[in-house]
Amino acid sequence: MTTSTVVVKAPSRRSLGLRDNLGRWDLAVSPYLFISPFFILFALVGLFPLAYTGWVSLHRWDLIGGELGWAGFDNFTFVLQQRQFWVALRNTASIFLISAVPQLIAATAIAAALDTHLRNKTFWRMSVLVPFVVMPVAVTLIFGSMFGERYGLVNRTLSDIGLGPIRWHTDPLASHIAIATMVNFRWTGYNALILLAGMQAVPRDLYEAATIDGANWLRRFFLITIPQLRPTIVFVIITATIGGLQIFDEPRLYDQNGLGGEDQQWMTMTIYLYKLGWNQLNFGRAAAVAWLLFVVIVAVGLLNLFFTRRIASSEDGRR
Amino acid sequence: MQRLRSATKTLGVAIVAALALVACASGSTTNQSSEPVKLTLATFNKFGYSDEMLAQFHKLHPNITVVQNVAATSQAAQDNMFTKLAAGSGLGDVEAVEVDWMPKLKQYSNLFVDLSTGDTKSRWLDWKTQAATVNGKLIGAGTDIGPEAICYRSDAFAKAGLPSDPAAVSQLLKGDWSNYYTVGQQFSKANTGVAWFDSAGATFQGLANQYQNFFEANDGSVIATTNPDVKNAFVSVLNASSSSSAHLQEWSTDWNAGLANGAWATMLCPSWMLGVISGNGPKIKDWKIANVFPNGGGNWGGSYLTVPKQGKHTAEAKELALWLTAPEQQIAAFVTTGNYPSQVGAYSNPALTGAVNAYFNNAPIGQIFADRAKAVTVTPYKGVKYAAIMQAVQDGLTRVESKKQTIDASWAQVVNDIKALS
After folding, report:
1. B395–A279 CB contact, under 8 Å
2. Which chain A residue's Cα is nearest to B12?
3. Which of A226, A315, B38, B66 is most buried per CB count within 10 Å?
4. Do B196 and B265 contact (CB within 8 A), yes or no?
5. Which fold has domain A76-318?
6. Is pLDDT of B16 > 70?
7. B137-138 and B94-98: which strand pairing?
8. What's the CATH architecture for B2-145+302-353?
9. What is this structure's pTM?
């Protein structure tokens, strides 16, 4: 009897052990399995292209012909010695600053306005998103002709009110402002909606308490809204940084050649990359620029994170 | 270089093998059944392939339907071509190619179908065929060529006290480039409010196409920075431009608006430019054509139709490309857009020789461009880097025209930019 019970118990104990193990694995592995689609996709469309671009950048590589041999860091040293690379870096930084700073200030202001008790809220909220829905190519073509130097709408209006024409396609700064205008036209509303969502998550009792304490609208905005918005602002700034440094459509379609102007006035990093890769068919050098751009974006992103954290925490301290 | 060759060779073998399979497959479909086939024809600007013409092809081949995609500029078409050639898919079944980017494509001739057949051997002008032939393989079927005349605005000429009828203007402009510039100065002194030519860049194109080896030697090595002809052309065009140019860069929005407003009085006029002028300036009524060109003759541009091997129906696509580039179809295109045929057989056809253009005050364009084509004596060598060098030089010309740099400073930057292409 005893032996038989042992015999019966033994397999049941074993099966219990297996189930136990499965359960333990389930606990340990399943969560990773559930989130794995994202990481697999990220590895495929994010990490792999990044690594492959790095591989290409270390070779002489023809766009169509493919690999032509090992080059070491030749592509990087070549690119870093080019005047055009540094001009591209300057332009990218300049267009980014001219577009991102006013854009975020305007977006915050619009969001604050939309956060008040308006009539037809949905209508106003949807209408700020309209420019975002319009095709960027169409926007750029229209703006490009508006900013024509001799026959463009902007310069004609300026001369009608007695101001001299601005050389939108010749002066670097003027061309950067024109391009930043297109970027702002497109992205301000989008960022305003994201900031608005953040604002609506701010607990209303904070405002009520502040109002009772006698804080006016401005103080409430700067001492409650902005600090409470910190995570949203960080997100908006980081995405604006990535998008701003990768800017391509607008400068590409700003004139008929799409190569950033005769003196590279508005040639951004991505345009330079495109010029090397697709015009000169030199994919190795283009890949080197892509990697340098990646490094720049990471650096600027970290810098932004550092500053936004500091600003927000100093406000925390004041509060 | 050696590695490139061996790499292309292996690639070539692989592609030929793959294509043998594809060819078998597509061959069998055409022979056995008339399965419906949809072909895409990718062109740019104005090729003159009207819907009626494509419908006619459909009538001849009831199973084939042709859809035409027209890119806005040749630059857009070129970018599209190289991107999709690199990707290995996505190109049209028949792709139009401009002569200036043909050299780059000739490096990858194994990616294109050989279009030579027995009966098309002597269809085109020799130099037209040569520019698209790699080791006996024809990768492009010639469409048009761009023999150049001078287009001018007769009212502006009359206002400036110059003769204004075509025969007299031809006489006036006969000679070299400095004669063209001198007449320009004379014109500018009359202060008509109209410039002599549109831009230094466009005028430079006319000069560049008159040399056998302008930017590159026959072995492909770059001579642009050392060739005195290039610098002389650069400097002389800019000297003329300071008093005679409208300073509007070709194809820019301002240039298009300038054309619509009649901002300049003369233009180098390859045959395909007629459609551009009449399309942009419908309100200007005084454009005429002088049967003359500075320094003899010149050819600017002209295109080809290619059949990329990545297409699914290359046999049918080849048929379409060869049909469209037959003399009859190119004459029809010439009548609609002014694109002058590259087909020898078209030149004796009365439909071509008798053609007149109403917009250009009934200019006998058939006769004029036949003469202009005969005056072309030089076939410029254009290598792989031609387009990129031309871009660098054009940028240099623009920098001076927009008063950003002096001629010397701009030339120094041109030299640097060309060196960076190596």
Report:
1. no
2. A65
3. B66
4. yes
5. MetI-like fold (1.10.3720)
6. no
7. unpaired
8. 3-Layer(aba) Sandwich (3.40)
9. 0.85
